[in-house]
Amino acid sequence: MSQQPHPPADAATAADADADAADIRQDFLHAFLLDPARHSPDAPAVVESPEAGRTTVTTYAELRAHTAALACALDALDLEPGARVILEADTTAPALAMLLACSQAGLTFVPVSPQTPRQRLNTLLDTVRPALHLQELTGSRTDVPHPVGTARFGRDGLTVERAPERRPPRRRTPCPTDPAYIVFTSGTTGRPKGVVMSHRAVVAFYRGMLAHRIAGPEDRIASTSPLQFDFSLLNIGLALGSGAAVVPVPPQLVRWPRHLLRVLREAGATQVNGVPSIWRQVLRHEPKRLAALTQLRGVLFCGEEFPLPELRRLQELLPTARIVNCYGATESMACSFADVPNPLPDTTERLSIGTAHPGAEMLLVDADGRVIDAPGTVGEIHLRSPALFSGYWGDPEATRATLVPDPLCPESGQYVLRSGDLALRGPDGAFRFAGRADSQVQINGNRVELGEVERRLAEHPGVTAATALPVPGPGGGRQLAAFVVLAAGHAPTDTGDLWTFCAETLPPYMVPQEIRLLDRLPTTAHGKVDRAALAAEAGAAAAADVAGSAR
Prior knowledge:
Strand order of the largest sheet: 11-10-12-13-14-15
Helix content: 25-40%
Distance between the termini: 91 Å
Structural class: alpha/beta
Number of domains: 3
CATH superfamily of the largest domain: ANL, N-terminal domain
Number of helices: 17
CATH topology of the largest domain: Rossmann fold
CATH class of the largest domain: Alpha Beta
Strand content: 25-35%
Number of strands: 27
C-alpha cells in the first residue's frame, strides 16, 4: 500500500492554524473558551483545592489536550450531532474538559448533580432521551436504565461501560445554532423545565459579558455554584473567556465558612462569584478571616437580591473590592451587570441592575402590552438579545408564552424574552428590580417554581391541599416553607415523613425547610389561597422566635 507524503511541517502548522481560526469564527462553545490556549498555553485554566494543602493547577494547554482526547473518544461512539448526553458531575478540571469535549464532538450536554434523586434523574432521562450518561470515575450512579449508554471519565480518559445504541446518523456536521446544553429548572407544570441554549447564543452572551471587563488574565475566579446551574456556566465563561482561571469550590465546602475561605486562600482566588447567601455565615462567623484575604479584589453575585446590611458589611471587610450585581434569567444566562457603589449610600433602598449588556436591550412593558418610557413606572422586563434560549425542551406552549413577538414591531417576526420580572427605570436610565410577576421565586439563588413543590406534596396520600412560599429564615434571608392540610380521616402525621417524600423526587433546594400542618388554608374573597396571610403568619412566627431567643 502506498503512503501519501506528509506535508512540510510549516505547511501542516499553517493548515492547523487555519483550521483553528475557522473553528473560532464559527462561534462554538469549546472554541471560544479554549482560545487562550493558542496564545497562553502555560497559563492556569483551572485551580482546585478540594482538601487542605492539596492544590492542583491545570494549564490551558493541558485542558485543551484533555478536551481533545475526550472528544476523540466520544467521536468513536458514532453519535450524531445534537445527541444528548447526561453529564453528572461537580465542577472539576476533568468535568470541565468533558463539557468542552461534548461541545467539540457536537453533542448537547445536560448537566446533573451527583446528588440528584433517582426518580428525578429518571424523569430527565425520559424527557431528553439521552444517548449516553457520563459520570466521573468516583461517581456512585449504577442504576442508569437501558438503552442509555454509560461511561466514566477522569484525567486518564473515557471508559465506556455500556455502549450507546448505534443508529444510522441523520446528521453529519455540527452547527453553531445547535443546542450546546440543556439546563433544567423548576417548571409550572410540576415537571422540570429544560432551557435549550445554542452555541451561538451562549457565545453571544459571553462576548456581551466580557465587554464589562470584570476579569483579566491574572485573575482566579472562584465559582461556588454547582455545575447543573447556569450560574456555573457563566462563571466558567467569565474566567476562560478572560484568559483567567476557574477555581471550583466543591458544593460540600461552600456552606462551611472556614472551608470556603480556606479554598479561596490556598487557591489564590482574586474574585468570588456566587449567590448572596454564600456570604451570610462568613460575615457572621468568620469576618476576620475574610478581611485577611487581601488578594480578593472582586465579588459578583446573581440569583437573588443582596440584603443591604450584609452588603454594607461585605464592603467594610473588603473595602477595595469591586462588587458587581448581575441580573438575568436562565433563558439568556443573564443580561446586565451593574457595579455596586462603594461605599453604598445610606439612602439606597434598592440596588440598580444597570442596563442590558452590549448587543442587548431591556424594555419595560405594561399589562396592556405597551412599552413604558416614563421613569419610575413599573413594568415587565422584556429582553431583546442574540443570547436568547432556543425554547423549552419538548414544551412549545411554554416557549410561546416566554418568547413573544417584539412589542415595538411584531411584524418583523423577531422575538424577545418575556422575563416575568418587574422593574422600573430610574432617572439615570438604569433599571431597578421590583419583584416577580408570577409564583416563581429565588431561594438561596436557586429558581423554584412553587407549583412544582405543591404538586409533589399533593401526591402524598395523606395530603389534601398544600401551598408553598418563601418565608423569613431563622438566620436571615429566605427559606422555603410549605403549609399542608391533611385529608379527612388522617391523623396528624410526622412532618419528617412529608419532608422525606419530597426529597425522593425533588432536588435539595426545592425541599421545604419548614412544613406546617393547618386545619385549612386561608382564602381571599375570590376563593384563592391567601398567600399574603400565610406569609404574614410565617413572618410573625419568625419574629416571635427571634424575640424568644433574645430573652
